Amino acid sequence: MTQDGLMIETRAKVHQTPTRINFACDPTPEERQAALLALAFNGAGTLGADDLSETASWDASNRAGIVGRDQVLAALARVCAPVSLSVTQIVVQGKAATVSGRLTRDGEGLFMFCQILRFASAARTQIAQIVSVEQKE
Fold first, then answer.
1. What is d(CA 72, CA 48) in angstroms, rounded to the nearest whole number?
2. Burial of 4 by CB count in 10 Å (0-12 exposed, 13-18 middle, 19+ buried)?
3. What average pLDDT score do residues 98-107 get?
4. Which of 3, 12, 106, 115 is deepest in the core (most CB within 10 A)?
5. What whole-number percentage of the chain has pLDDT above 90?
6. pLDDT at residue 6 above 50?
7. What is the mean pLDDT of the chain?
8. Rg for the chain (alpha carbons), in Å?
9. pLDDT tens, 28-67?
10. 3-state secondary structure the chain
11. Which superkingdom is the protein from (predicted)?
12. Rounded to 5°, angle at Cα 93 from 57 and 49
């Protein structure tokens, strides 16, 4: 609590790690950094509140869209980590990055996935929009 009696909420980083992450490609440090941000939306990787713009949006193929940093972080906390995940392609260009591959969810089988990130600037310090596609094979 602050001096004026207001509550201050602190947010921990959302962190879920799958049993195995494999990079089938050989990512550069820039590509690996983008991939680790993107994988948080599959339930793997690490994403902090500072990694999202205040008005970030997250659209996914299996649910309604979400708008706002706090809402995106709350939704991420409910994503179950996959048992294994293999990244087959990473593309980083300007204000955008895509990460795709395959993952296995416990009791659900194999899925193909693609995470599309649009950053607030070419510096790629904050995510403005995420589009997630996950398709059962």
1. 11
2. exposed
3. 92
4. 115
5. 64
6. no
7. 85
8. 15
9. 999 999 999 999 999 887 788 999 999 999 999 988 999 9
10. CCCCCCCCCCCCCEEECCCEEEECCCCCHHHHHHHHHHHHHHCCEEECHHHEEEEEEEEECCEEEEECHHHHHHHHCCCCCCCEEEEEEEEEECCEEEEEEEEEECCCEEEEEEEEEEECCCCCCCEEEEEEEEEEC
11. Bacteria
12. 35
Q: Which residue has the higher pLDDT, 5 or 76?
A: 76
**How many CA atoms within 13 Å lie on the side-chain side of 112?**
4
